[in-house]
Amino acid sequence: MRAYSMYTIKFNGEPDDIKKVLPIIDEKLGYNITEVTDVIKIEDESLVWVEKITEELAQVMAETAPNLTFTIDGCVDTSESAGEYMDFSISYRDGKITAASSCWYIYFYGDDYEDYEEFCEEFLDDEDNPRFTEEEFE
């Protein structure tokens, strides 16, 4: 299953603390960032899953710069294989890491279907009933 994540790391802290975590981002993700910045945009296929990003990136950054506050907000994208997405947010504040994620979801485009009946043919549940009401489709 091909999956990747797109996320944004936002820092709030002293430039010296931000400098401490830049080598970690380079080591884990291969982003060679040398200038201090408040925001880094990431698109990655190695640290994809929320648990891995939390353990292998956020935790290490927090241990390296405990006075730095940061958030990692993004989306796991499996659209090329499973067709699903999951939004997530990881934050480090006051010495504590918290992580939250949405349920898996699918984008669908109502304009791709002639009408509700055609849409229902593609989106059936396990009992062959429409997964969405006509109102939800509209």
CA-based shape: elongated
Poorly predicted spans: none
Structural class computed from helices and strand pairing: alpha+beta
The portion of residues forming beta strands comes to: 25-35%
Looking across the biggest beta sheet, what order are the strands in?
Answer: 2-1-3-4-5
Biggest sheet overview: 5 strands, antiparallel
Gap between N and C termini? 32 Å
The tally of structural domains comes to: 2
**What's the rounded overall pLDDT mean?**
89
Number of helical elements: 4
Total number of beta strands: 5
Query: N-to-C SSE series?
Result: EHEHEEEHH
Helix content percent band: 25-40%
Radius of gyration of CA atoms, rounded to a whole number: 19 Å
Task: Report what the structure shows.
The protein has 138 residues and is of the alpha+beta class. The protein has two domains: 98 residues; 31 residues, no CATH class. Helices cover 30% and strands 28% of the residues. Helix 1 runs antiparallel to helix 2. The two termini are 32 Å apart.
Core attributes:
138 residues, alpha+beta, five-stranded antiparallel β-sheet, 4 helices
Summarize the structure.
With 138 residues, this protein is α+β, with helices and mostly antiparallel strands. It has helices at 15-29, 50-64, 116-122, 134-137, and strands at 4-12, 39-44, 69-77, 85-93, 96-101.
